[in-house]
Design brief:
Length: 233
């Protein structure tokens, strides 16, 4: 039963992604059915987060059969773990490098647009609507509506399905902190944020934002709540 969770979920992923004839028309009638299906969901998401999109089906099945049939392994257990670790690192490094290059290319082209302005830090922004109220400082709290997308247009977060979001200006990603201070109450800006002003190489929960991704936020500054060290101009 050693490594049963990993093995079972890997099987589910391979069965669902390979070209072999597999019967996936399964009705979940028992606890075992539900557990098995849930394991499949879990490993598929884990592999997706690890950027695995290709496996050798036959070699994979041989590894499973050798373990369950207690055969001598072609690769020692410790060595297998190291191979997996190295492979996942290579996949992650490649993805990080690719995301960085893709983001830089996008921002290089984006800054050529007539309405896009670029700050010294590399933040790009576009004024959709100018405001007339006060601008926030780092010690202030803001009330905003926003929509966050990847550079391909995929939405990963939005406040528009509910109430506006409220948060301190100095407790968010640097691109937001800088961009908000350029705005006045009532303004609507689009912020184009390079990875160094965003989440960098950090992995965000949910998996939509991958390491080193450039991000786009459409931000409406509704209200500035002055902090204890701020004074209204």
């Amino acid at each position: 039963m050693r490594n049963l969770l990993l093995i079972s979920t890997f099987v589910a992923f391979v069965f669902s992604s390979c070209s072999q004839d597999v019967n996936t028309n399964v009705k979940l009638k028992s606890d075992l059915d539900s557990v098995s299906y849930s394991l499949g969901i879990d490993i598929a998401k884990s592999l997706e987060r690890g950027y695995v999109d290709e496996l050798n089906y036959n070699a994979f099945i041989k590894g499973i059969e050798d373990v369950f049939n207690e055969k001598d392994l072609d690769i020692a257990d410790d060595q297998a773990k190291q191979i997996i670790q190295n492979h996942f690192k290579q996949l992650r490094d490649a993805k990080i490098a690719g995301n960085l290059e893709e983001g830089q290319k996008f921002l290089e082209e984006n800054k050529k647009k007539e309405n896009v302005k670029v700050t010294e830090s590399g933040l790009q922004y576009e004024i959709i609507k100018e405001g007339e109220g006060i601008s926030p400082t780092p010690t202030d709290t803001v009330v905003v509506h926003y929509r966050g997308t990847l550079i391909d247009g995929t939405e990963f977060d939005s406040s528009h399905d509910g109430d506006p979001a409220t948060f301190p200006v100095n407790r968010i990603i640097p691109g937001w902190t800088e961009g908000l201070q350029l705005m006045k109450e009532g303004a609507n800006y689009k912020l184009y944020i390079p990875t160094e002003l965003g989440y960098g190489e950090r992995v965000r929960p949910g998996g939509a934002i991958e390491p080193n991704m450039a991000l786009i936020f459409d931000v409406e500054l509704i209200e500035v709540k002055k902090g204890p060290e701020s004074t209204e101009e």
